[in-house]
Amino acid sequence: MRPLELTVRLAATIFQVFVASDTASDTLASLKRLHGLMPYFVLKGILKISNPMAMIRGVLDLFLARPFGGQSLVQR
Predict the structure, then answer these.
(1) What does the domain layout of the chain look like in residue ranges?
(2) How far is residue 10 CA from its own chain's centroid?
(3) If you average pLDDT over residues 21-40, what whole number do you get?
(4) What b/e readout covers 14-52, taking b as 16+ CB neighbours within 10 angstroms?
(5) Per the confidence metrics, is the pTM higher than 0.90?
(6) What is the DSSP string of 47-73?
(7) What number is the average pLDDT over the span 26-38?
(8) What is the mean pLDDT of the chain?
(9) Nearest in space to 76 (alpha carbons), one of 54, 68, 66
(10) CA–CA separation, 1 vs 42, rounded Å?
(11) Are residues 27 and 18 in contact, defined by beta-carbon separation less than 8 angstroms?
(12) Alpha carbons within 13 A on the beta-carbon side of 10
């Protein structure tokens, strides 16, 4: 696949998810809420001394963890 074709497909997907779909406003609100939960300053400091893949795995574990059988941060 050519880079231009990938760019067009990515742009079309982003448009569909965040603009054209019926649930676009809900999806955007969820993305904003998730963005507010991310401790970017702390992640930047950890990334300097850590393995990037291990850090990404740890962040995903944090957001997908279901403490005591409840909802994960992503589900909230």
Answers:
(1) 1-36, 38-76
(2) 15
(3) 86
(4) eeeeeeeeeeeeeeeeeeeeeeeeeeeeeeeeeeeeeee
(5) no
(6) HHHS-HHHHHHHHHHHHH--GGG---T
(7) 85
(8) 80
(9) 66
(10) 37
(11) yes
(12) 7
- SS percent in the chain: helix, strand, coil, step 5: 75, 0, 25
Structure tokens at 67: 């403490």
Question: Which tokens belong to 19?
Answer: 């603009």
One-letter amino acid of 27: T
54 is written with which tokens? 């291990």
DSSP-derived 3-state class of residue 70: coil
46: nearest Cα among 36, 55, 58, 59 = 55
Whether residue 63 contacts residue 74, with contact meaning beta carbons closer than 8 Å, is answered with: yes
Q: How far is CA 4 from CA 1, 11, 39, 44, in A?
A: 8, 11, 33, 31
Of 3 and 74, the structure prediction assigns the larger pLDDT to 3
**The residue type at 50:** S
